[in-house]
Amino acid sequence: MNCYPFYPSDYRVEEFILDLELYSPLKKEWIKYNNILIDTGYDGDILIPITDFEENGFNKVLTLETDQWKAESVSGEEIRLISSFSEMKINGSKVETLVESFIGNNSLLVGRGILVQLITTIDGKEKQTCIKT
Amino acid sequence: MATIKGEIPPELEEEFRKVIALKYGLKKGNISLALQNAIEEWILKQKRVLKTDKKQTELILKQIRSEFPNQFTAIDEKGVLIAHGSSLTELYQKLDLSIILRVIEPENSRLNVVYKKRQMGWDLIRKIQVK
After folding, report:
1. Which ipTM did the prediction report?
2. A61–B74 C-beta distance less than 8 A
3. Nearest Cβ partner of B121 from A39, A62, A66?
4. Is it true that domain A2-132 has CATH number 2.60.40.10?
5. Shortest Cα distance, chain B CAs vs residue A38, angstroms
6. Which pLDDT does position A31 carry in this prediction?
7. Residue spans per domain, chain A
């Protein structure tokens, strides 16, 4: 089990975060991502900034449904998702994952698609998020 | 006409100016013309990448999955098989990524999920403090 202390935030309460590694199709190596925000409102696996998406060659290995999905942000803005597949190392386990981004995206977050494969405990008393696979 | 401001590496700028001079000569307005052409071409390229036919997609999926069950496969934009592997890392190690490819997941993969809606996160930010 790995535990990650709550991450300081400008908002009212701290953020829940975790660390993981993502396999880069272009660099052919594992890329470390630390302090990724856990967002239970995102139904995907991992959303990465568009610059990372391109730098790691995810834009060269697209899924068939890349152009077929439009999402909507809470502000009502239409988002056209670009998606790729990769492998993720999380908490010592390897999982196949959907990697997504969209033009203009700067956010880096892990969604419910990953959380449903883990046992995640938000331990408010100890101010940490613990992950068990 | 609109103005776009951005920064590029000096060596790219030098190369860009050289090619413009060779192609169009050293007349005023040629940089704008070349920039317009480059942007139009880039937009078209992005649109081509993002355009696929749904029926064709289903057909390709069926063929590839029956031929390579339990394998991840990469095809080009015409549906031609480029490589396959038992895992994504194995597949990606075989690819040089000089062209844009499409990756197909095995039928029994957790990535092969049909869904109707997407949710993009709790992106509701309290920007303004009401007094």
Report:
1. 0.87
2. yes
3. A39
4. no
5. 10
6. 96
7. 2-132
